[in-house]
Design brief:
Blueprint lengths: L1 E7 L5 H10 L4 E3 H11 L1 H11 L4 E2 L2 E2 L1 H8 L3 H25 L4 E5 L3 H4 L7 E6 L2 H12 L3 H8 L5 H7 L2 E4 L6 H16 L6
Length: 200
């Protein structure tokens, strides 16, 4: 079974692509969702986060996402600390998940795939690409965020050119090229590759 990464900048539409893969019967590991779950359910992580950010880091047993976001996106050291805490745990969870899958290929979806080192051990990586302005407009509409807040989050991700240069396949979600047909073609290609005999 192939291990495939799926990444893209905020607002690129990688979650939409992930849902298309799921509709085709391909299992998807959503790294960001798993990370949030671990930050709520893993006692060691919860303790570390409370010690770092205070008791207000959790409300009624749930992570206070607004508070954490306001703290980490304005302080690079706090963001780095949290990433170093969460990324290894999430990567380990993803590796265990991959071992349980039976499909021709399975997908690990992660915004910070390269930044976190989660690309190591993957056979291929798919990048979802969209123009900066398009991504900005999508996130403002989706999250009700200000342009400044979205740009701040973008600044903590790899730039589009660098990220795309690390990917094996690029899907263009620019509102000009139909996304579904691109995903279908790539699904066909990955299924064919997964059936190829190993190279001698």
């Amino acid at each position: 079974m192939l291990r495939v990464g799926l990444t893209g900048g905020i607002g690129s539409g990688k979650t939409t692509v992930a849902h298309i893969f799921e509709s085709l019967g391909i299992p998807v590991f959503y790294a960001d969702e798993v990370a949030k779950k671990l930050m709520t359910e893993d006692p060691a992580l919860v303790t570390a986060i409370q010690e770092k950010f205070g008791s207000d880091a959790y409300k009624n047993g749930q992570l206070n996402k607004e508070l954490i976001a306001s703290l980490i996106f304005s302080d690079q050291k706090k963001l780095d600390w949290l990433n170093q805490l969460i990324h290894p745990a999430t990567i380990q969870a993803g590796n265990r998940w991959f071992e349980e899958q039976k499909a021709p290929y399975a997908v690990r979806e992660a915004a910070l795939l390269f930044e976190s080192g989660a690309d190591r051990g993957l056979d291929y990586v798919i990048g979802v690409s969209a123009p900066l302005l398009t991504r900005l407009e999508r996130v403002i509409k989706r999250d009700g965020a200000t342009a400044e807040a979205v740009k701040q989050r973008m600044n903590h991700q790899l730039d589009e050119e660098t990220r795309n240069g690390k990917c094996n396949f690029i899907l263009h979600n620019d509102n000009n090229q139909p996304l579904l047909s691109q995903v279908l073609a790539l699904d066909k290609k990955l299924r064919a590759i997964s059936n190829e005999p190993a190279q001698a």
